[in-house]
Specification:
- This protein is α/β, with parallel strands linked by helices.
- It has 2 domains: 214 residues, Rossmann fold; 100 residues, 2-Layer Sandwich (Alpha-Beta Plaits), CATH 3.30.70.
- It is built from 12 helices and 14 strands.
- Strands 6-7-8-3-9-10 form a 6-stranded mixed β-sheet, sandwiched between helices. The protein has a 4-stranded antiparallel β-sheet with strand order 2-1-4-5, with helices on one face. Strands 12-13-11-14 form a 4-stranded antiparallel β-sheet.
- Helix 4 packs antiparallel against helix 5 and helix 8 crosses helix 11.
- The structure holds adenosine-5'-triphosphate.
- The site of adenosine-5'-triphosphate has 12 residues, from strand 2 and helix 1.
- Its main location: membrane.
- Belongs to the ABC transporter superfamily. Drug exporter-1 (DrugE1) (TC 3.A.1.105) family.
- This is ATP-binding cassette domain-containing protein.
- GO terms for molecular function: ATP binding; ATP hydrolysis activity.
């Protein structure tokens, strides 16, 4: 018999009064996979993770985790999971190892095993030499690593991370991801995370893109980008009306005017720009060609951009591109 998937979700819905936060979501996460939920603010990511972690009852649907029914056997599910939420929940007044010990006691880790488990978890995140220091003396990145260690003390099968690197600087985000990838490689742990960062989603084996409570696509980041296909080309000119005419009449393109210049999609962007300059003598003052990103995937599927890494609302300048597809 093949082992049961780490997570199985069928037709999951959650309603808060009039708000349908999650609307009929289904997906499966295999053992040892890094699976990401990518979506903008309010898409339903946290609500889904809370239902999977037994913190919120679903309105309807089936949820199974490590072979246990989440609604019927919440205690078994809690033992099988580790959870790292957005808001830090360490006790600043305790040392690193005291924080972990508290967790080990709450999770019923046998006393005889506790020391070894704590040492193992602290070594894993490279905090062994700081174990006797108060958490309030730790940097943001060290605190996040300690939270990961704490999530591992009871040896869960699935680790949930809600926006694991939100609020961390780029270097610390990178280091946190190194820890997570190493963790998966060494322990075969299943990781389920939510994110609105494109680069974070790139670390996942598979992602589900969620928007307005529904999954709009699910695949590996590479496959999703391949499906969008064409290169994105931006050209700048002092004569946009004339260039629009050339692009439309000669090449059948209808570019969008964006902050970065006229924007359109073609099969081989670089070759096309060379042709544009040589054939049409187009009056260009700037060129940018890029491969499709996950942002383009989201745009293609929803007509909107996910907010950028600074947490600002996404620009809608390229919206028309998606509408045309
Ligand atoms: N307890 C609640 N009561 C009422 N509405 C809620 C509650 N929790 C979430 N919602 C609503 O459900 C929708 C989904 O919210 P959720 O927090 O799951 O989104 P999210 O994708 O995690 O967003 P973020 O990235 O901001 O965390 C939102 O419209 C939100 O306002």
């Amino acid at each position: 018999m093949s082992p049961s998937p780490a997570i199985e979700v069928r037709d999951l819905s959650k309603r808060f009064g009039d708000v349908e936060a999650v609307r009929g979501v289904s997906f499966t996460v295999n053992e040892g996979e890094i699976f990401g939920f990518l979506g903008p603010n309010g898409a339903g990511k946290t609500t889904t993770i809370k239902m999977l972690c037994t913190l919120l009852a679903p309105t309807s649907g089936v949820l199974r985790l490590a072979g246990h029914d989440v609604t019927k056997s919440p205690a078994d599910v809690r033992r099988a999971i580790g959870v790292i939420f957005q808001d830090p929940s360490l006790d600043d007044r305790l040392t690193a190892e005291e924080n972990l010990e508290l967790h080990a006691v709450v999770y019923g880790v046998p006393r005889a095993e506790r020391r070894a488990r704590l040492d193992e978890a602290l070594a894993f995140v490279d905090l062994s030499d700081r174990k006797r220091d108060l958490v309030r003396t730790f940097s943001g990145g060290m605190k996040r690593r300690l939270e990961i260690a704490r999530g591992l003390v009871h040896r869960p099968r699935v680790l949930f991370l809600d926006e694991p690197t939100t609020g961390l600087d780029p270097q610390t985000r990178k280091a946190t991801w190194e820890v997570l990838r190493d963790l998966r490689a060494r322990s075969g742990l299943t990781l389920f995370l939510t994110t609105h960062y494109m680069d974070e989603a790139e670390h996942c084996d598979r992602i589900a893109i969620i928007d307005h409570g529904r999954i709009v696509a699910e695949d590996s980041p590479e496959a999703l980008k391949r499906a969008v296909g064409k290169d994105v080309v931006f050209v700048r000119t002092n004569e946009p009306a004339a260039l629009c005419e050339i692009l439309a009449e000669r090449y059948g393109l209808s570019p969008d005017r964006t902050d970065e210049g006229l924007c359109f999609r073609v099969e081989d962007g670089e070759a096309f720009v060379v042709r544009l300059i040589s054939e049409a003598r187009a009056p260009l003052t700037g060129i940018a060609v890029r491969r499709p990103t996950l942002d383009d995937v989201f745009l293609a599927l929803t007509g909107r951009q996910i907010r950028n890494g600074n947490g600002e609302a996404g620009r809608l300048a390229m919206r028309a591109m998606a509408r045309r597809r």
